[in-house]
Amino acid sequence: MATIAAAPATQRGAAGKPGPTGTSGGHLVRKRRLFWPFLAPALILYVVFLVAPTIVTGVLSFTRWAGAGDTPQFTGFAGYLRMFASDSFRSALVNTLMYVVVGGIGTFLLAFLFTMVLRDMPGGKLVRTILFFPNIVAPVALAMFFSFLFKSDDKGLANFVLGGLGIDPVRFLAPENVTLTVIGALVWASSGFYITILMAAVDRIPPYLYEDAEIAGASAWQKFRAITLPLTWDVVGVAGVLWTINALKIFELVFVLAGPGTYSPPTAAWTLGIYVFDRSFGSQGTPDYGGASACAVVMIALTSVFVVLLRRLMRRDTIQF
Amino acid sequence: MTVADVGRKAPRRPRPAPGAGRRSPLRVLGMVVVLGFTAFNLLVLYWLIAASFKTPVEIFTKPFALPVRWFQLGKPLRNFAYAWDQAGFGDAFLTTVVLVAASSAAIVLVSAPAAYALTRLGVRGSGPLTNLIAVGMGVPFQTVIIPLFIGLSTVHLTDSLFGLFLVYVALSIPFTVFLLTGFFRSLSDEMEEAAAIDGASPLRTFFAVMLPLARGGLITALILNAIGLWNETLLAIVFLQSQAHFTLARALFTFYGAAEYQSEYGGLIAGVTILVLPMLVLYLVLARRIITGLTLGSGK
Amino acid sequence: MADVSFRGATRYYAGVDRPAVDRLDLEVADGEFLVLVGPSGCGKSTTLRMLAGLEGVDEGQVWIGDRDVTALPPKDRDIAMVFQNYALYPHMTVGENIGFHLKVAKVPRDERERRVRKAATLLGLESYLDRKPARLSGGQRQRVAMGRAIVRQPQVFCMDEPLSNLDAKLRVQTRTQIASLQRRLGVTTVYVTHDQVEAMTMGDRVAVLKDGVLQQCDTPIGLFSKPANLFVAGFIGSPAMNLLPARVDGDSAVIAGHAVRLTRGQRAQLSGDEVVVGVRPEGVDVVDFDDGIPVVVDVVEELGSDQFLYCSFEQAGTGDLVEHAVTARVAGMSPNQRGAKVGLLPRREAVHLFDPVTGSRLED
Q: Which residues are in the ABC transporter domain (chain C) (predicted)?
């Protein structure tokens, strides 16, 4: 999961030189002959299905192409300029950033709050298992649940409850509200995962540090500030990277919740993921592979920028217990 | 010193440390949120399963009640029957099981040797190569679907389960290789060296010693990929067009619009349940393994 | 400054019927250095944690000075604790670690710095104030943990095996440092250890626990010279006291043909006609084979200053050879040899007698 956090693999037996013991040296050489046969299938699939297409997408982003039957025409940055000028892209960009930033802040605040309570809560393991549960459910299924929950007329579950409390129905899924609604849904669906990651790190903190803080009279907040946060900082950083990667490509949840489901929702609710899909495989109109590719390039560029920024922001000395 | 213990019984729950139950506002807030959140998750599960046995009227007017109408009419499984037969979930279920099983197995089959090669052969450049593959986890699928679609359509592998199988296997490699390198790296050198001293060939060492040792990791990789692919929607939408090839998630996606149009909400929720239930069962059995597996990479 | 008292303090753990600490009554005087010692699982750490407030008290009370602190959270008890693993915050510097409690207590910055500096000077840590714990040696970390306790100026120090992570040499040095520091500061201290040498050298008084029950609490000399029962007799002192089962014949206990006289009072306290004769290795004289308990020397351990003889003797009546049954301590470089047949004679004043059934000491 921790893509970017991957530490360089340990180099065994000082590559190139014979092994430390005479007997294993010959064996090591024979073993190394396995390297390419073992690695090749995965590497070839990886290059053919991931690296090459990414490059092709980069090239296509500078063209205008309507797909099969049409020939790609090189247009330089014209496609990008047109895209940046379009309302649909702008709202897609703004919404996506909302999901990443607002949703991220929400998710992490929630996760932090949970670390304060879950650490020494009886039955905490069971609670964690229940909290994690949405992560094994298909996003498209979650989206359908939320569409029932937030149906705009009084049929929706939320409005049913609100109606019971004497509150007028809220149009949760109207284009102007849907982003906030989906952020809520997203935070609900993903926080279990981030809580679990953070709690795994919290569990590794020696309990006597919390006991010392208890003797000092530290409040829950002070314990969090003085112990939990600094000692899980690197995991928080990795979790932030994961969040960014996942939130930037949000698609199903918005697609189903904001629209009729079979074709794209109104542009005001778009995300970058929907923009790419709509311009390439969305059922309406002729495809615009060039524009979709340009947007895909923006997605991967944003991912890189966010990840680099986060890693720079979170960089700190490693801490050993 | 030792006095006969008469009429003395250990308390079932020893007294907590003084101050442990201290009610700071933050802790109270946290407790409320945690319990509310947990209750909501359970409620969602209840609602989903209950609603899949309800008529549309019941779903909307008595969302929290137990299902009644279809039971009275003697057709308690009516929604499931509709989804399974009319909406094509039966075929999709079979397709999904086969596709997911084949893909997950193939992914592990391809990734395990690669992870082994990258961690245990001591070849120069293994580290950067591992990172290069791991970076693939950060690439949104949207970035690759257009060239993949064009490429596969030229070899007539769009709207084909084999084409989707290839895509699934290839795009799952970064995560799986990364996960398995962690497992292989944690194995000790001694077993491998012992096998070498016994004269086992490197290939034999891999199959007879290393793979069994990494079995836990392989199973975890298998399960995590199965869950991920079972729930995968975007690629299925792009690469499958005819209903005969639909996976569950894909079928649900298409059925959603139709169900809305026909007010076939019971069937729709039954469809959601058919998609969710197998994963729920798997989760109930393997929760710890799934959770630790999914959060593994980030911990280190 | 304050005294500490446990009044029938009892602690249970979930799912265990036997209490971890069972109706402990213990008084620690103001300024006293009390050591809790016992084998692992005896409840000594639990006792300390009850005092610190990290552990609930299921029955009874804990008092500090004239306050019942049983229900008070740790911070209101005016105690400081030194943990076995020191509990240093790895991301804080030495200065921040020492000052952490003051910071939480919102002590103003300059007073905080002054007190941290003072504690650091006392412990010779001035030049390390800006270092992180990872870059300190084990002994330095231990001193930082001490500093964090001192800087609070508490009424009671709680120390939970603070030396167990140090190597043997450093442990000996540090134990005198801690003891003298405590005497200088005059703060009531409860100190937990499993090491009876540490207990005997550091404590004003030593409390021996076993299975959650207090066995004896006395000065080191008291414990050593008048162990209250078989457990204390075997636990305190190294090498351990020789405990020899004997049969009472008239007014004497007979071991391998050698008679040890019992007083009338001792005879009266005895529940049966068996007795355990205890004698420390240094309370045994080596004499001719026929003049004492006849033994064969199995092993000679030469320490230079002392010599330990591990001997076996024949069980009277059965004729079985009891191996390594008796240890004798003699002057170093004595000309004893393995296989030699000698007699061992317990000195009258060095003999302890115990009831084998109750384990209790038979008073003179």
A: 4-236
